[in-house]
Amino acid sequence: MSHACYVLGAWGVTLASVAFYAVTLMIRGRRMMRRLRDHPDQPGR
Amino acid sequence: MTSESADAEVAEPRITGYLGGPARISTRFTFWLGVSTLIGFAAVAALGLLAAPADDVQGDAVRIIFVHVPSALGAYAAFAVTAAGSLMWLWRRSLWWDTAAHAAAEVGVLLCGLTLVTGMLWGRPTWGTYWEWGDVRLVTTLILFLVMVGYLSVRALGGDSASVATRAAVVGLIGAVNIPIVNRSVTWWANRTLHQESSLTDGKLEDLTLFTLVLAFVVCAMAILWMMIHRFRVGWLERQISDRDLSEALRARRAEVRQ
Lengths: 45, 259
Known about the structure:
The structure holds 2 protein chains of 2 kinds.
Chain A: H1 3-37
Chain B: H1 3-9, H2 28-51, H3 65-92, H4 95-127, H5 136-156, H6 161-188, H7 207-258
Helix pairs in contact in B: 2-7, 3-4, 3-6, 3-7, 4-5, 4-7, 5-6
């Protein structure tokens, strides 16, 4: 394999992993906020 | 104990953000931090993959330095925060620091895993092998990774939250002891590693390569800050929702007993 394959592999794995983790954090956060908002005792409901 | 005082004991906990304000998952600061980080990643990729010169010895494989070294230093920094948070939990029983320690550990495990993977992808074209068990830095980094995966596993075991935090804090401090060993291993065991000493301090890097590497450190630090803030908020909200659910269950049980 050429060096380019290793370089693109390393960059691809890094960027994809960070992007995936960032998206899961946003989804988890929104899910938490929804649980908070949808609670029957939540003020303002 | 009267029923009123029993109810007060399990009163609905007030859901707040970690600074006492309203709970939220994103702010204007984190939004612009995220946007700046994305622009920074694009700049580092353009410079690192296209503009920076290939190395005389390693050729294009040297371009892996822009993701490998910032990941490694980022993992050290994240685990140092975990150690500080663990210490504060053991010393002051600070929930804020315990949540911060957990958030930093998760980010650190991601970065340490990336350090191992990108290091393997760099080692194959440079050393002719993905992995060398005799290389002390590779093995100590793997041990650090496994200890911090252990930290997250202890967190996931469940049970009384204070006991979980205490057990995890001990594992977090054990992991932190490994950080200087990993970092100094190429000096302490110079004849038992394929790694060279720091490229940053030996003055052998080209100007543009050095500039791109420093930019990569800054962008990596911004990404770590963004991830830690978001993970911290998730952990803080999880803790508060869990406390609220427990209080509700206790109140429901007490109401059943009274009927």
